[in-house]
Amino acid sequence: MAPGLVRTPLTARLTANDAALKASTALHALGRIGAPADVAGAIDWLLGPDAAWVTGQVLGIDGGLATVRPR
Question: How far is CA 50 from CA 36, 53, 54, 56, in A?
């Protein structure tokens, strides 16, 4: 799994700083940073029977961060 920036205690230094949060949010195509539930939903799916045939994949859960290209 390849999550983008998610609001957690480990990212508090970035997310508590208004300038850093604004810059990070602007990099995400969906216009927001992630929440723990965004990643948890994917983990739940991967652990369930619907993902039984999924192997060796990198699942980008990044709010579109990987699709944004620098200008």
Answer: 21, 8, 9, 15
Spatial separation of the C-alpha atoms in residues 7 and 33, rounded to whole Å: 7
- 33 CB-contact burial (10 Å; exposed 0-12 / middle 13-18 / buried 19+): buried
Neighbour-count burial of 7, counting CB atoms closer than 10 A to its CB (0-12 exposed, 13-18 middle, 19+ buried): middle
- What pTM did the predictor assign? 0.78
What pLDDT is stored for residue 67 in this prediction? 83
What the block records as the tokens of 51 is 């993902």
What phi-psi label fits residue 38: left (phi over 0), alpha (psi between -120 and 50 degrees) or beta? alpha
User: Across residues 2-11, what is the average pLDDT?
Assistant: 93
